[in-house]
Specification:
Length: 226
Amino acid sequence: MIYRVEDKYCCSPAELFLLQDRIGTVLQPDHNESSEDGYSIGSLYFDDLADSCYQDTLDGYEIRDKYRIRIYNHSFENIRLEVKRKKDSRIHKISKRIDREQMYRLIQGECIEDGMSAEDPATLFNLAIRMRGLRPKVIVAYERKAYVFEPGNTRITFDRNIRASDRIEQFGKEDTAYDPLREQDAVLEIKYDEFIPDFLLQMLELGNMRQTAYSKYQLCRELYVD
């Protein structure tokens, strides 16, 4: 299992756009980009009956998992089923494409066809549904501008307008009513395999920016957890 480094930094919207302008002069945008502003992401996060994913993140456990279905630009043309494991500041994500029928079955708490492999997210979803009652909990949406740098498999993303909804039936719809995160709605994420070039670190330097264990899922769940 190969883990990538994932560093996150909270920043203001102004700082986010300043850094984005810097990086945009030297790096190519991500292939998902649909406009100069980037693209929209919608993620439907799942958790079990004990809210283990939420609680493990809240408690800062060294190893914690996230289960989600992700779409882009409010479209079901490319539906991704993903399981993301985090170990300290390193991540391992497995992902595969599913169709709308499979998506709706998972949302209803039903299993789908899988490859019976630990590297198949459908297998992990099915196990969690059967043994732990995995169910959808919250929609997380935001806009992303992403850049890639091939050496080190480096990926730099700028996420803004992060918002949440507990109306699961609205997943993927453009008219969904969201609750904003307000003060925590802008984040910089830096992902790479083993190294990141020094020139990129210098370009991303802002004296008042702080590294954080920022979790979109945790913050959005907190809007609805009593």
